[in-house]
UniProtKB/TrEMBL annotation:
Biological process, per Gene Ontology: 3-phenylpropionate catabolic process
Enzyme nomenclature, EC number: 1.14.12.19
Single GO MF descriptor: 3-phenylpropionate dioxygenase activity
Family: Belongs to the bacterial ring-hydroxylating dioxygenase beta subunit family.
CDD domains given in the database record: ring_hydroxylating_dioxygenases_beta
Species assigned in the record: Sphingobium psychrophilum
InterPro entries, alphabetized: NTF2-like_dom_sf, Rng_hydr_dOase-bsu
Annotated stretches, region: Disordered: 1-20
Domain of life of the organism encoding this protein: Bacteria
EC top class named in words: oxidoreductase
Protein name, per record: 3-phenylpropionate/cinnamic acid dioxygenase subunit beta
The entry's keywords: Dioxygenase, Oxidoreductase
Length: 183
């Protein structure tokens, strides 16, 4: 569990160029396809060595409660992982003991509402997106996950690497039998 890292980057408030936005949007679509195809070998190549992948648990709160449950990395989280922990989760799928993935789950990731802003760090971009992820397993097991993502992507040579991802689910209770999905 990562506790001392932050998902914040100072931004310039400026939108990225049309070309940068297009390139990053295509990267998000490519990433979604990799996840749909369970092409984790290539997906991991998109992840930076200093990755922070965070999906906090969201509690129902009254508006007057100003607790920031999304940004507090010490609160309950479904994911609060670095690259090593993500690789460990993925290696479990190769052991043959991941009963929740035999037979395999079928996935569809839909990414939309992509916005790209410049950060104060040259070559890094803050990318906002919405997602819908559908999972189906066996005959009748279906799950739909809906939410927002706030990413930091770093330009590396002629491609991008995911440095940070905050996933904000619109569900406060997950009724799924497992959470074997990356968003």
């Amino acid at each position: 569990m990562i506790q001392n890292a932050t998902l914040e980057r100072p931004t310039t408030g400026q939108s990225a160029s049309v070309e940068q936005t297009h390139s990053l949007t295509q990267t998000l679509y490519r990433e979604a396809r990799m996840l749909d195809e369970e092409n984790y070998v290539d997906w991991v190549k998109l992840l930076a060595d200093d990755l922070l992948y965070h999906m906090p648990g969201i509690e129902t709160r009254y508006r007057r409660d100003k607790t920031d449950q999304v940004k507090d990395l010490t609160r309950m989280a479904y994911y609060n992982d670095n690259l090593t922990e993500i690789k460990k989760r993925l290696s479990r799928l190769e052991t043959g003991t991941a009963w929740s993935e035999d037979p395999a789950t079928r996935y569809t990731h839909i990414i939309t509402n992509v916005e790209v802003e410049l950060t104060a760090i040259p070559g890094e971009y803050q990318v906002f997106s919405n997602f819908y992820a559908y999972r189906n397993r066996n005959e009748r097991e279906e799950d739909s996950l809906i939410g927002n993502r706030i990413d930091i992507w770093r330009e590396v040579e002629n491609s991008f690497q995911l440095v940070m991802r905050r996933i904000i689910l619109k569900h406060n209770v997950l009724i799924s039998k497992n959470l074997n999905i990356f968003l």
